[in-house]
Automatic annotation (TrEMBL):
CDD domains: Histidinol_dh. NCBIfam families: hisD. It catalyses: L-histidinol + 2 NAD(+) + H2O = L-histidine + 2 NADH + 3 H(+). Catalyzes the sequential NAD-dependent oxidations of L-histidinol to L-histidinaldehyde and then to L-histidine. One of its GO terms (cellular component) is cytosol. One of its GO terms (molecular function) is zinc ion binding. Pathway: Amino-acid biosynthesis; L-histidine biosynthesis; L-histidine from 5-phospho-alpha-D-ribose 1-diphosphate: step 9/9. PROSITE patterns: HISOL_DEHYDROGENASE (PS00611). This is Histidinol dehydrogenase. It is an enzyme of class 1 (oxidoreductase). Its EC number is 1.1.1.23. Binds 1 zinc ion per subunit.
Amino acid sequence: MKIIQVNENVSLRRDPDSGNEKIQAVVDDILATVRHDGDEALRAYTKKLDGAETDALFVTETERVEAYESLEDEAVEALQQAIANIRDFHERQRPQSWMTTKSDGTILGQQVTPLDAVGVYVPGGKAAYPSTILMDVIPAQVAHVGRIVMTSPPDETGRLHPAVVVAASELGVETILKAGGAQAIAALAYGTESVPAVDKIVGPGNDYVALAKRAVFGQVDIDMIAGPSEIVIIADDSARPDYVAADLLSQAEHEERATAIVVTPSKTLAKKVSAEVERQLEDLPRAAIARQALADYGAIYLTADLSEAVAVVNELAPEHVEVLCEQPFAYLGKIKHAGAIFLGENSAESVGDYFAGPNHVLPTNGTARFSSPLSVDDFLKKASIIHYSAEALAENHENIATLARLEGFEAHARAVDIRRKRGGPKS
């Protein structure tokens, strides 16, 4: 891996929109076609882009049964335990409606209600992602979303990976669409003859999915524009090079554009990690993908000290941050921008990806500066509640009218004035 001394001439951030112009044009065409032609276009794109030809747009009961038969019992049990952990974590997030009453009879509050319908996109292609189903569907269920439609690209036989079908079935997802890419996003956003439109689309995907989600925002809500996966590891001399290397590779194997970075003041550790990465790559099944990612987006940054290392993390605002230092909790309050923070040598990023409970749908491309992990809040709406008593209006109507006239809205002012006219007829 490249070992780079951090200085003011080193550019740390990547351009998330680089090279997307041609893809956007293709995406726009797909969205328009599916919106116009519905199921016919959905089937055509599934055949053309996924190589799958099938009359069944949705997973059948037979496919569910066969998925369970093909999956080992221990895999099902692991999914069930992960579901329990993730549900327990998200149950603690659910906000409650509330109201407060003032002495003058004013009642103010907030009503929290779930979304009616949500679409969950689950990537396919180079890997199966049952964990993404758990992370997207469970908070929606905790929020009591009325209807959940899941979609994922099929293989050439027109089927989804058994683990994907089983994970969805364990959660009770009834509607599983076999479609991927921008065409699936279009179906969820606009609806087709067979696919009911939703109010929000969540879940990560490739560039086509990300740009399609961006394009339909406004027609529906979306969770975020998810980019390639990222990990940044803060490490000192106490860190084990084999742990650091393994965690870097756990992200680099995702795809060729994944980011895997170590930030450390230790030249000794930097050299050991670089060597250890090469050793572990030798028998890694997805070594070719990982090597490309590390060559293009991997680095070991040398800093003056750990304080500068934290500053680098805050500038990058990455999806995942690991703190592999002698006193990891000492740096927790100093890390301002990160999607998820993993503290200590036993808290591998994989623990959060699959099992611990917190959501693994996280902000990428530096958006952790202003956004948060997917949560129950993403599936809820909040409406303000206002009840003004006659006493409250009498006390405050002049202030309200004054502010309305300050902005030049006379009708606003008169709307409160008319209520203060004594003896006026009711109509």
